């Protein structure tokens, strides 16, 4: 799988180490340290294994011209500290080629060059004696071992002042989620301690359950429909990410989960929470200031909401009269394999729920669209869609509150104003609102 090191730059090695422990993966490389405590490294491994030199001598560094930018060079010199396999010329070349850094199961030399360039080096120390004609490259881009940790080409290497570790590429997505959970949980505990709790109470209140990192079956697609007659299904918080000093991003199974948590935090506001911003499967929680415990309390409330078997009472629907005269109506009906009359009946026969606002002020993404009416966005978006246009795209339907570019399929129009700055709130349809479209001529 492809690893984007940017996903790891806001994580410290300690959190990732804890995530590896929980996953039963031994990836911590003992005995290797950064040349400078400010050095950080994250990137896929490019591996080189060394062995004793033969009669023909050998070189220690020709491989460097083949290392792709952003990679971390991993040199297995069998842990030897009597000869070096990295020095001035390799550091200069690696820096010019924009490599992410170098990890050495052994020692390096010419360290002033790495320090002056800010090139991250992790090793067992420094020693001046060259490895030329003493060791040679035995293999490139094969499995290597560092302090008993097996490293395959492409594994993720992550290092900071606390050391270096390796994450198997196949488990990278799982480990980054676990590590984020751990980092946020510890942040919430710190907030509670700073707010005056003792450590035991802070741990109890800040703890995030292991279920929070469970994978989601269809996280990027439409949520699976519940069986007919099934009762309310509790959602689960599946991720908590830091979003700066004063915010966290809650990731949930689906739009229903977002609505459930948003309702919990809106109807009984947490003191110190300044704003809630729902998305398709996320809820951004913004605190007034950092470190006062508000975010920790918000996570507790979110956990409570996701564990609940009940649902909040549905509000009275917002009724939108619609003339089904949209420019794309005949084409949409044809692509959905039904007459226009059936399309109108299906679209107007459903109660929709506003998941979140986006695209333009007052534009609500409405969930609940009949699966038979779901089409991908238009291949060529329009440069201007008129205000009041009723449209569908993917799993959503919605109404354009003002003229704007758009790529949704237009099936109708309405004269109802969706955005009015003279009202409070200015949006007619707010997240969590229930909407019904009513056909008119």
Walk me through what this model shows.
This protein is α+β, with helices and mostly antiparallel strands. It folds into three domains: 5-167, 3-Layer(bba) Sandwich (Glucose Oxidase, domain 1); 177-220 and 233-307, Gyrase A, domain 2 (2-Layer Sandwich), CATH 3.30.1360; 318-440, Cyclophilin-like (Cyclophilin). It contains nine helices and 24 strands. It has helices spanning 13-23, 88-96, 111-117, 172-194, 199-206, 255-267, 294-307, 329-335, 340-348; strands at residues 28-29, 33-34, 41-52, 72-76, 101-105, 121-123, 135-140, 144-146, 149-151, 156-160, 163-167, 237-242, 247-252, 273-278, 282-287, 318-323, 351-357, 364-367, 382-385, 389-393, 396-399, 404-406, 409-413, 434-440. Strands 1, 2, 3, 4, 5, 6, 7, 10 and 11 form a nine-stranded mixed sheet that branches. A hairpin with a 2-residue loop joins strand 10 (156-160) and strand 11. Helix 1 (13-23) crosses helix 4 (172-194). The longest helix has 23 residues, at 172-194. The two termini are 53 Å apart. The model is unreliable at 209-233 (pLDDT under 50).
Protein traits:
Gyrase A, domain 2, Cyclophilin, elongated, 24 strands, 3 domains, 441 residues, Glucose Oxidase, domain 1, alpha+beta
CATH topology of the largest domain: Glucose Oxidase, domain 1
Helix content: 10-25%
| Number of distinct beta strands | 24
Q: Write down the overall geometry.
A: elongated
Oligomeric state: single chain
The structural class is alpha+beta
How many domains, as an integer?
3
Mean pLDDT: 83
User: Cα-atom Rg, whole angstroms?
Assistant: 28 Å
Q: What's the CATH class of the largest domain, please?
A: Alpha Beta
DSSP summary: helix tally: 9
């Amino acid at each position: 799988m492809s690893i984007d090191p940017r996903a790891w730059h806001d994580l410290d090695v300690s959190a990732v180490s804890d995530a590896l422990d929980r996953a039963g993966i031994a990836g911590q490389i003992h005995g290797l340290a950064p040349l400078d405590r400010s050095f950080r490294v994250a990137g896929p491994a490019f591996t080189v294994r060394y062995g004793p030199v033969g009669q023909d001598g050998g070189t220690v560094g020709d491989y460097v011209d083949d290392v792709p930018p952003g990679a971390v060079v991993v040199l297995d010199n069998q842990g030897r500290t009597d000869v070096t396999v990295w020095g001035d010329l390799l550091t200069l070349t690696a820096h010019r080629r924009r490599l992410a850094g170098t990890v050495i199961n052994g020692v390096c030399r010419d360290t002033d060059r790495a320090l002056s360039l800010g090139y991250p080096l992790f090793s067992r120390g420094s020693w001046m004696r060259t490895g030329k004609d003493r060791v040679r490259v035995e293999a490139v881009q094969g499995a290597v071992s560092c302090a008993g940790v097996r490293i395959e080409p492409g594994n993720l290497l992550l290092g900071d002042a606390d050391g270096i570790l390796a994450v198997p590429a196949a488990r990278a997505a799982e480990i980054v989620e676990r590590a984020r959970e751990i980092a946020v949980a510890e942040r919430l505990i710190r907030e509670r301690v700073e707010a005056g709790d003792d450590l035991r109470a802070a741990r109890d209140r800040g703890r995030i359950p292991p279920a929070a990192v469970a994978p989601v079956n269809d996280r990027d697609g439409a949520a699976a429909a519940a069986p007919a007659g099934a009762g309310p299904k509790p959602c689960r918080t599946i991720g908590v990410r830091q979003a700066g000093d004063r915010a966290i991003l809650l990731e949930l199974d689906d739009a229903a989960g977002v609505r459930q948590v948003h309702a919990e935090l809106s109807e009984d506001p947490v003191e110190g929470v300044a704003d809630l911003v729902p998305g398709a499967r996320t809820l951004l929680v913004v605190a007034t200031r950092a470190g006062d415990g508000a975010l920790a309390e918000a996570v507790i409330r979110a956990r409570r909401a996701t564990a609940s078997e009940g649902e909040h009472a549905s509000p009275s629907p917002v009724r939108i009269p619609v003339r089904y005269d949209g420019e794309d109506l005949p084409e949409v009906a044809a692509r959905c394999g039904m007459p226009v009359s059936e399309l109108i009946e299906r679209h107007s026969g459903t109660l929709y729920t506003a998941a979140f606002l986006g695209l333009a002020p007052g534009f609500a993404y409405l969930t609940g669209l009949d699966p038979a009416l779901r089409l991908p966005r238009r291949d060529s978006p329009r440069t201007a869609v008129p205000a009041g246009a009723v449209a569908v795209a993917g799993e959503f339907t919605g109404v354009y509150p003002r003229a704007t570019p758009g790529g949704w399929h237009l099936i109708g129009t309405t004269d109802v104003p969706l955005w009015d700055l003279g009202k409070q709130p200015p949006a007619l349809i707010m997240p969590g609102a229930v909407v019904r479209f009513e056909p008119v001529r």
